[in-house]
Amino acid sequence: MEYWSITEGVFNCLIDKKRTDAFSNAIKNTIKPGDVVVDMGTGSGILAMVAASAGASKVYAVEIDKNNIVNLNKVFEKNNLSNIVKVIEGDATKISLPEKVDVIIGEMIATGLIEELHLPAMNNILKYAKKDVRVVLNKIENYIDLVNNNNKYYGYTFNVPRYEYADDKSLVSVSLSEKSIVNAVDFSVVNDNKVDQLLKIKCTRDGVLNGIRLSSKTTFYDKSVFSYYYNPRNQYIGTNCANGIKPQMFLADDTIITVNCRMISVKLSG
Ligand SMILES: C[S@@+](CC[C@H](N)C(=O)[O-])C[C@H]1O[C@@H](n2cnc3c(N)ncnc32)[C@H](O)[C@@H]1O
Predict the structure, then answer these.
(1) Between the chain's N and C termini, which has fewer beta carbons within 10 Å?
(2) Where does 150-252 have alpha helices with state H?
(3) Residues in Cβ contact with 232 at an 8 Å cutoff, skipping those fewer than 6 apart
(4) How far apart are CA 95 and CA 236, in angstroms?
(5) Whose CA is nearest to atom 11 of ligand 1?
(6) Confidence check: pLDDT of 139 > 60
(7) What is the pLDDT of residue 154?
């Protein structure tokens, strides 16, 4: 996958108040007057503008999607911030920045670090970081639990990856295991982009295991925490997840397993 983008997705991010407020507050608590900042995957430009309003002297707003690019300069101009925010069109996983930055912001992240390319983008952008760089989205912890997933829609069975939206109770799954940590990633250092791990997970309830649920918790530089849990972009359930989901591909077996409370091994790779 070269990049993940969808205009509707960018707008949904903008109107996701809980998410946008969490990021905005963390940015305001991190920026110092005069900072040079990069916003990777700027989308609507909201986080770049928050950084500019918080006192940054320069914000490089990196965006790959031409559909967004056409609007960004107009948005920054309308908000009288075009003297501070500069749009850079390109791929954050490869792009060079014109100067080193004090602060890295960006939200190219989905539950479990799958789909979007936050991790490879961070690995590249860190090349342009000043020594004491402050990374606003500082850490992510990814968890899995094993579930019985209601995968019937309109009377048909769909073994498909999906989100578990908090406002739709029919999408909530029954947990059959403890919630186990897959990994904890510190974005202020370069990280390996591969997962190859065997997890032993203790089942806590009998039932039919037909799904693996990912959930994530992010910690900001100011120590505030945001969980991709009771947020609309929340949990990811996969049975036989599609190939091509990167940077971390979740491989689950399509076979239905009946669980009698015991330890189960789950192999993660991708
Ligand atoms: C989830 S949206 C978030 C937008 C915005 N940062 C926010 O918080 O509202 C991710 C954005 O990253 C952009 N993007 C995805 N892959 C990218 C890449 N490799 N380089 C630069 N931008 C990318 C998408 O086009 C999209 O605008």
Answers:
(1) N
(2) none
(3) 12, 16, 163, 165, 166, 167
(4) 30
(5) 41
(6) yes
(7) 92
**Three-state DSSP state, 179:** coil
SS (H, E, C) 153-177: ECCEECCCCEEECCCCHHHCCEECE
Beta carbon of 64 within 6 Å of any ligand 1 atom: yes
Quick check: CB of 92 below 6 Å from ligand 1?
Answer: yes
In short, whether 4's Cβ falls inside 6 Å of ligand 1 is yes
For residue 26, what are the β-bridge partners? none
Predicted structure pTM score: 0.85
* Better pLDDT: 220 or 235: 220
Residue found by looking up tokens 């989901």 in the block:
245
- Give domain 141-269's CATH number out of 3.40.630.30, 2.40.10.220, 3.40.50.2000, 2.70.160.11: 2.70.160.11
Count of residues in the chain: 270
Report the chain's mean pLDDT, rounded to a whole number.
82
Instruction: List the one residue out of 106, 125, 101 whose CA is nearest residue 116.
Output: 106
Closest CA to 183 of 92, 108, 248: 248
Q: Which two tokens stand for residue 85?
A: 């925010």
Superfamily (CATH H level) for 2-138: Vaccinia Virus protein VP39 (3.40.50.150)
Name the CA dihedral angle for 61, 63, 66, 70, rounded to a multiple of 10 degrees. -20
Crossing angle of helices 46-53/66-78, nearest 10°? Answer: 30
The distance of Cα 145 from the centroid of its chain, to the nearest Å, equals 18
Q: Is the Cβ atom of 44 under 6 angstroms away from ligand 1?
A: yes
State in Å: Cα 132 to ligand 1 middle. 25
Token pair of 214, please?
């990912």
